[in-house]
Amino acid sequence: MIEPILVGVVLIGLIGMGAPIFLALGAGGLFGLWMARGPLAFFFAPTSFFGQLNSFELIALPLFILMGNLLGATPVGQNLFRAASLWLQWLRGGLAIATVGASAIFGAVSGVSVAGVAAVGGIAVPEMLKRGYGRKLAAGSVASSGALAMLIPPSVPFIIYGAVSGVSVGDLFIGGIVPGIALALALSAYIYVRVLMKPSEAPRETGPIPPLGERVRALGGIWHALLLVFIVLGAIYSGVATPSEAAAFGAAGAFFIAGAIFRVLTLKKLMKILAASVKVSGAILLIIGCAKIFGDYLNLVRVPETVSAALVATNLPDWAILVVLMLALVALGMLVDAVSLIVVTTPILLPLITTMGYDPLWFGIVLVMNLEIAVVTPPVGLNLYALRAVCPMLSVEEIIRSVVPFVFVQFAMLMVFVLFPELSLWLPRLM
Predict the structure, then answer these.
(1) CB-based contact 369:380 (threshold 8 Å)
(2) Does Transport appear among the keywords (predicted)?
(3) What is the signed CA dihedral for 353, 358, 361, 366, rounded to 10 degrees?
(4) 349 contacts 298 by C-beta, under 8 angstroms
(5) How much is the pTM?
């Protein structure tokens, strides 16, 4: 077992030296294959890399990223928050709850949590502070609810997990609906209870409730994007189109909405959006390809089977093993980005999960729920820094403190779906 330890040292050493994660994964995997198979490693490695990326379903990844970036360039995020705030203005804490609702819907539009934080947070936090909301409540509600984009379809993490595990991306999208709605409701309920216990954090609105006509008109700035998402997901769920085909339609529809309806696209802006989409997509695909090299080495030396046998031999009940795994993933998520965590841990943990009799579809759902915690916990929590970028009046330390109670809510909901798998599986089975 000395060879896997040396490979782990190489991987951690390269990451510690600041090497890109794809380079650390590829080099670590190639080194391990070389120790196990000698010069044949230089044949196995490129075969693994290109074999992993030669997947029709992976075409959905850059297309959904492009769709999200195109819609992110429009005022959809601001319009969502305005509409939600008008409808919930009568409720104490309504602006914070409206932030959760707007972030959840924008998550279905973009599929990227950072985009949701930037689009909604830039207007939601200043508006809440202007109306006397507590700074921690304002910051925490935006940073935590932005993570819903990872779970509510179309979700980029689900596409990555599907490519690594072989689970249907369409099934994963369906499976993410119930947990996504449940988590949004849990965050909203926490906000409501919190402001009831401490009314000073959310003063009650004293003005008149906006007339119904104004509230209905507020929906006029978002129906195009919502209709597009409904059509894209409907095509997937009904079997009319594969996720990749639906993603192509979604990207074309987003281009039409941004260019023809909102008219925010100039040639310079379009080139910037395309460049950003290519950069993000390329980085993710590099990580996925190099992680396959590393994963093939682990499978070659039977590391997943060894880990599975060791955990099963502890004779702990299944629920205890699952709780330990979730805590370990939360800790890893504080140090490793979401994409890397999916592609590195899935080949190791999935054999254990299937050995224990659990559904790989269910594991993908709870894994992404776990990653929602990762994006709001330092030092790698990207949502924290995205919120700081659009709300310079908040310090990073203040934002970190604000998300702590929301993280406990997220972890509690994670445990619910870990201990009761049927909650996330009944809808995919029904469909």
Answers:
(1) no
(2) yes
(3) -70
(4) no
(5) 0.82
